[in-house]
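User: Predict the full complex structure for these chains.
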Amino acid sequence: MSTESSAAIGSVEGVSLYDVDHPAPVIEPPRKRTGKTPKGSRTNFEMYAWLFMRLSGIVLVVLVLGHLLIQLVLDGGVSKIGFAFVAGRWASPFWQVWDLAMLWLAMLHGANGLRTVINDYAERDNTRFWLKMLLYTATVFTVLLGTLVIFTFDPNIR
Amino acid sequence: MATPTMDKVGTDPSASPASPYITVTFRIRRFNPEVSDEAQWQDFQIEIDPKERVLDALHKIKWDVDGTLTFRRSCAHGICGSDAMRINGKNRLACKTLIKDINPEKPITVEAIKGLTVLKDLVVDMDPFFQAYRDVMPFLITKGNEPTRERLQSAEDRERFDDTTKCILCAACTSSCPVFWNDGQYFGPAAIVNAHRFIFDSRDEGGEQRLEILNDRDGVWRCRTTFNCTDACPRGIEVTKAIQEVKRALITRRF
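Assistant: Here is the predicted structure of the two-chain assembly.
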């Protein structure tokens, strides 16, 4: 029976910094559960967010694929897109509603996905808070700006 | 490795032609805070029958080669759930893993399960795991007076949660979950499995309370359906399915 020690464990230049009375700090995982872990908020928010991801995803498949087909494939492809093309489409309430629904669903779907990523990967409470604030600000700004443009679009602007 | 004994004889000149023993390298992740603040891989070469289990190899190392190797085991027969560890990158019970099944021609890596504090070598601090278990109230909750005889249950009602009664709390599932690795405040698969065992028990009346607990920020909605837990479970519990059933129960009870 042979042993093959790759290296003597922990001896730093022959002298160990740690011993029985002064053990090294153990390697702890981020954010472990303790008896003091905050108890629940007793709301259904997480469930609604989970459901929203599934439902908006289904609707977005139709909206986005239809959008890409019209914009990039049919009728001359991407070269036809210009101010006049957009103005012509937004003259119809149907396309206004289509684009509005796509804007809101895609933005909220993406924002909720990023919120999940932040919850999963940000370790410190402060980091979580500020990343989420940045995310929410960017989302609200984009959604409001897009909505404003769709509703106040003026085809006669010079 | 269909016929390991005959194949490997040539590699070990000291063994007689009939010897079942082969030489296997175990690459074990060692950590001892009394010596170093860093974990290191250490190789052990031992001669062992490939039909033995990884736990037997660990015993052989601890008893014959290096007595400082530290790991947990109690029953050594897949019931107590003490010896879950990461063997060749996958969570398994050392006492249920045969060496011939995990390609002994290459070094076999053994390390502590992930996502929990390593205390020494393969021993982790299970407190956060059991805290999540306690938080889902894994005990019978009833209202009213106790009946004078047993609480009877039909075979179909018992069948409903049969799968999740098999859990041995070894933490193989929870410590294989990528959400748990990054955020240990997630309840984790094992706690949800044990909540499932009571939520779907016809004799229990605390289901609504448990669903409320699992409806929260660290509850079932954090599950990303990666199926790591189902793959890891040494008892073959369909863990992801159980989590899915809790999600469905929440949705159908709220609407």
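DSSP finds four helices and one strand in chain A.
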